[in-house]
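Propose amino acids for all 472 sites.
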């Protein structure tokens, strides 16, 4: 164990140093205190959204942190965990001790009426014994909200980074798709870039809003260990362009219905263009908050996925998503998540797979410092080849607010995969200690900015929560 700490000492000091300069509003909240879908096993492994931790649907404007004051938002999280089967091997269990460091840095400011937000998130993993599985992820993202007129807004967004595919994730590659001895290969590295724009009409006034949006995404897989004879060797690299149009009708103070039509065109960087194709989605949804204790988003629709090669299997079916939050009382909240999406596969024989997810989480404050979180979810991945993978994932976390700038947690989790395909089922049990620091309060940031008036938007002053309370 001492060799491991000596090996990571330099990188850990660098990560803490970045956090000392300021690391961001939590972009990924791991453990039992997050939304159910984002806990434990990552769903939809091969979509670029999994690397950026975006929601299943990028609802226009929902991702922008409008409630933040102009300031830096630094934080850092360090996990110490022991795994029974750290690489999720199907043949034997390999226990190992894992350290994960996640520094984050967010910054928000205004340029007159216009808003800007940028963030960095890193993720550095270190294994005690299986050092070839060490990996890192670095993601930078930015949003610029242009307040054009009383009726028109323009939001520009971009993200760039490198990440990696964890072993045994939903939709990921198997060990046997590596050249030579895949068990001695490290995780596959992934580079990606994404950018786009949303032109929004009527968000500030009226009950009907419209959004016309565009997004480009490029994904490049950097593994040198893939077997060249497989269908998904170096040619998993791909790009996609998405155009969508939304209409949103707010018929109550905190309730609205929306519709979306979306077209996605995907091009693979390979000589064989048979996987190139397009996908059309039609969605109807409800953003709902009938009471302070209940809120959520529901969406249901149909999707068609066609390939340039007519011999490929096409998809024509239903898609949906749901995220509901119910407060039993001010100290206890239940979250329910469910979704069905169509994904690009890592399986070398498949054209696509349907991924169904359902999960539930419960967060309960035992007192002012102590919080308990529980979650469980199931994922069912159906491939067009007949392969079916089933995951069950659950965990618990006990979080203690040690200081106003530090929380400490102990957690436990289990992940299990079953499949009708031989040689890929596994189980992994893990437990650990998690330390998370909101460095903003530790560094004294935010006290001055809480007394500042936010810049006006067409004559409507935005005040901080501190200023509003003081006035009352």
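Proposal:
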């Amino acid at each position: 164990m001492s060799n491991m700490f000596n090996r990571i000492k330099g990188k850990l000091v660098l990560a803490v140093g970045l956090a000392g300069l300021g690391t961001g509003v939590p972009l990924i909240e791991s453990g039992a205190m997050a939304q159910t879908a984002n806990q434990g096993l990552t769903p939809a492994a091969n979509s670029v959204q999994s690397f950026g931790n975006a929601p299943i649907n990028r609802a226009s404007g929902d991702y922008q942190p409008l409630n933040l004051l102009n300031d830096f938002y630094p934080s850092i999280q360090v996990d110490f965990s022991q795994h029974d089967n750290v690489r999720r091997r199907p043949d034997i269990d390999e226990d190992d001790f894992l350290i994960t460091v996640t520094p984050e840095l967010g910054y928000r400011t205004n340029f007159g009426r216009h808003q800007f937000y940028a963030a960095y998130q890193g993720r550095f993993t270190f294994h005690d014994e299986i050092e070839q599985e060490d990996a890192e992820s670095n993601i930078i993202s930015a949003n610029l909200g242009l307040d054009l007129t009383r009726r028109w807004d323009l939001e520009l967004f971009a993200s760039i980074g490198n990440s990696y595919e964890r072993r045994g994730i939903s939709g990921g590659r198997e060990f046997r798709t590596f050249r030579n001895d895949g068990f001695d290969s490290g995780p596959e590295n992934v580079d990606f870039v994404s950018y786009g724009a949303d032109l929004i009409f009527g968000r500030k006034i009226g009950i009907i809003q419209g959004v016309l949006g565009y997004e480009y995404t490029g994904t490049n897989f950097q593994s040198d260990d893939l077997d060249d004879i497989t269908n998904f060797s170096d040619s998993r690299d791909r790009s996609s362009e998405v155009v969508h149009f939304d209409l949103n009708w707010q018929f109550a103070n905190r309730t609205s219905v929306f519709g979306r039509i979306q077209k996605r065109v995907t091009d693979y960087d390979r000589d064989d263009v048979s996987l190139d194709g397009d996908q059309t989605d039609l969605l109807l949804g409800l953003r709902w908050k009938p009471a302070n204790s209940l809120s959520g988003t529901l969406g249901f629709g149909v999707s068609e996925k066609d390939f340039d090669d007519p011999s490929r299997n096409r998809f024509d079916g239903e898609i949906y998503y749901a995220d509901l939050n119910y407060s039993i009382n001010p100290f206890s909240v239940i979250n329910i998540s469910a979704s069905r999406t169509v994904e690009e596969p890592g399986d070398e024989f498949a054209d696509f797979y349907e991924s169904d997810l359902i999960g539930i989480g419960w967060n309960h404050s035992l007192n002012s410092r102590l919080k308990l979180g529980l979650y469980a979810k199931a994922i069912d991945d159906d491939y067009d080849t007949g392969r079916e993978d089933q995951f069950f994932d659950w965990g618990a976390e006990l979080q203690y607010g040690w200081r106003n700038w530090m929380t400490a947690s102990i957690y436990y989790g289990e992940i299990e995969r079953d499949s009708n395909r031989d040689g890929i089922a596994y189980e992994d049990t893990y437990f650990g200690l998690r330390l998370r620091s909101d460095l903003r309060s530790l560094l004294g940031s935010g006290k001055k900015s809480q007394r500042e008036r936010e810049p006006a938007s067409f004559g409507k002053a935005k005040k901080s929560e501190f200023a509003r309370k003081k006035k009352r």
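The CA atoms of residues 49 and 55 lie 7 Å apart. DSSP finds four helices and 20 strands in the chain.
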